[in-house]
Request: fold
Amino acid sequence: MPPSPTAIGKAYPPISYAVGREKIREYASAVGETNPLYFDVEAARTAGHDDVVAPPMFAVVYSARAVAPGLFDPEVGIDFARMLHAGQEFVWGPLVVAGDEVTTTASVKDISERGGMSFFVFETVSLNQRQETVSTGTWTQIVRGG
Amino acid sequence: MSLQPGQTIELRVTPDPFVTYRYAGASGDFNPIHIDEEFARNVGLPGRILHGLWTMAQVARAHTEASGGPEKLRRLSVQFRGVGRLGEEIAVTGRVTEVRDGTAVVQSEAEQGGQRIIRHGVAELEI
Reply:
């Protein structure tokens, strides 16, 4: 059965995330980063930042929770057992640093079918406490045989 | 550093057997295919597999290390294919395909054991 496109454009409640210094360090360590900007407050301040800097892909940490309601939304209709994370894009704005408050809103960008597979595309827009867009994420999930 | 068309970037990393536990904690993604060996085998995988977004973070790191820092990476888009395995080296390779208006476009992929687990990487770097 082809996926229903009725949920395209649907938005989910914003999720707020308080960016912590140790969380940035934990994330940076887990992905093998060594740049002192991510670990050392003095190095970050010397480089002109207010606190340690989040690596760009830390966007996953503050924005992924906003996507979850869409993945589970019956109106979207994803069959979890056959879902694959097929593609990801981030476009970044100003750097995120420890102490920032990031608010992310997710929406259904597209639902389509081709080659016997269903494509579910979500978009996240993340703003900091100054209402600057720190990242925009595009999350593409494929459901095989859907 | 200045990036010129044709210039290549490379990063090699071997994910240790416990990296999926650390990444699960750091990212909040506790999908059992990454942290439960028995569960992973029961759903037909060779064992626990890497998080795709961990591997994407390696692609991102290849770009930020080559371009001089996190503020240089303006965009990164990737496609995930197959599964990333623990304990086996991953090679991230990229090439500058275009430079215009202060932006370098880099096309990249990540390969492990002859399999391209990230394909069609496209990044924009500020130069």
In short: Chain A touches chain B through 31 residues (CB under 8 Å). The CA atoms of residues 74 and 90 of chain A lie 26 Å apart. Strands of chain A lie at 15-18, 83-92, 101-114, 117-127, 133-144. The mean pLDDT of chain A is 95.
